[in-house]
């Protein structure tokens, strides 16, 4: 059964950036105001994420890595109306099957923090050592995954160079930082002083776009705003007078980072029709709609999402283009 679990885990966590996305979503679900990430060797040697969220209480610490353990689903109907990122109870379980996992956590009402180590979905049995054991720590959670895919040679060999995996991590955190601008994020290589990205807490999306994607893009941004009975849409797009070499597209549906080939294609076509060949917009789009109309239960690493009213959203995005046509930077 362990091998089967490991294979399943390798499906959920295909590369370090998937693990970081899951861990970040847990920190956001925990109400974190700060999320600090350290990485070694593209995440293969070390992935560490520290937050100042609600923490995990000691009783839950014993079971958090068991599959389908989640504190986020109280009744079956909830599956239809998911308000938090997590709901499968699979992320920590999966990581514990393919890495050495350690959690240090403290809730507000606990006098001390606890440290726990896991293997294959369970608390590790370490002779002579209590696990979880009390330790010093601040409110919040530090999750450390070491030697990712140490037991899955095939998965490890399928990865790109560590520098490329590192870039993917920085990219996914950057996207979350734009969308969650009230939360401060950082990514750095473990043991190094310089950060690869950083945003301050209590910021705004546009300020974070400026910090993360550059002042030039930020100066050209136009607001995208639309609301009707089906969905609510907010975002920022570059003016048609300004283009980037590649289409940078940040799409969040109900606060989940997703991909939509349909929206991507339609929006790019509209914008590029105004621009010389080979130029594209920068677009950050956040769409909120009834969770019943979004299929989030797709494969966890294939972020391609399907939802109702796709065509309405595409035409609403086209309205942004009309604004852009008249605009000019302001
Ligand atoms: P899910 O997010 O789907 O519930 P996970 O495996 O990602 O499943 O996490 C399992 C549980 O562990 C969560 O439901 C939550 O209770 C707890 N947890 C995980 N990470 C954190 C964190 N950073 N802060 C507080 N609780 C956490
Ligand atoms: Mg989760």
Automatic annotation (TrEMBL):
Protein localization: Nucleus
Domain of life: Eukaryota
All copies of domain DNA mismatch repair protein S5, residue ranges: 209-317
Family: Belongs to the DNA mismatch repair MutL/HexB family.
Protein name: DNA mismatch repair protein S5 domain-containing protein
Organism: Allacma fusca
Section covered of the full-length record: 14 to 343 of 688
């Amino acid at each position: 059964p362990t091998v089967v679990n490991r294979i399943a885990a390798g499906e959920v966590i295909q590369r370090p950036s998937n693990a970081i996305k899951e861990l970040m979503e847990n920190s956001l679900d925990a109400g974190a105001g700060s999320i600090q990430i350290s990485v070694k060797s593209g995440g293969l040697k070390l992935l560490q994420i520290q937050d100042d969220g609600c923490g995990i209480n000691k009783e839950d610490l014993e079971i958090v890595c068991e599959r389908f353990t989640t504190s986020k689903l109280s009744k079956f109907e909830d599956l239809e109306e998911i308000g938090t990122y997590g709901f499968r109870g699979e992320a920590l379980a999966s990581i514990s099957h393919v890495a050495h996992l350690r959690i240090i956590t403290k809730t507000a009402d606990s006098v001390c923090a606890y440290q726990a180590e896991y293997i294959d979905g369970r608390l590790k049995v370490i002779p002579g050592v209590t696990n979880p054991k009390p330790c010093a720590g601040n409110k919040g959670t530090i999750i450390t995954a070491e030697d990712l895919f140490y037991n899955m040679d095939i998965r490890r060999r399928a990865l790109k160079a560590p520098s490329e995996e590192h870039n993917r991590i920085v990219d996914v955190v950057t996207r979350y930082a734009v969308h969650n601008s009230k939360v401060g994020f950082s990514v750095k290589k473990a043991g190094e002083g310089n950060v690869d990205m950083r945003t301050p807490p209590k910021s705004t999306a546009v300020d974070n776009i400026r910090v993360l994607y550059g002042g030039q893009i930020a100066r050209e941004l136009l607001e995208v705003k639309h609301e009707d009975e089906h969905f609510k849409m907010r975002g920022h797009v570059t003016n048609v007078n300004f283009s980037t070499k590649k289409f940078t597209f940040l799409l969040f549906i109900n606060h989940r980072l997703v991909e939509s080939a349909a929206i991507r294609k339609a929006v790019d076509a509209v914008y590029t029709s105004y621009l010389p060949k080979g130029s594209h917009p920068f677009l950050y789009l956040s769409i909120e709609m009834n969770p019943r109309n979004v299929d989030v239960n797709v494969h966890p690493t294939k972020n391609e999402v399907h939802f109702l009213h796709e065509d309405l959203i595409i035409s609403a995005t086209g309205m942004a283009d009309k604004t852009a046509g008249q605009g000019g930077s302001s």
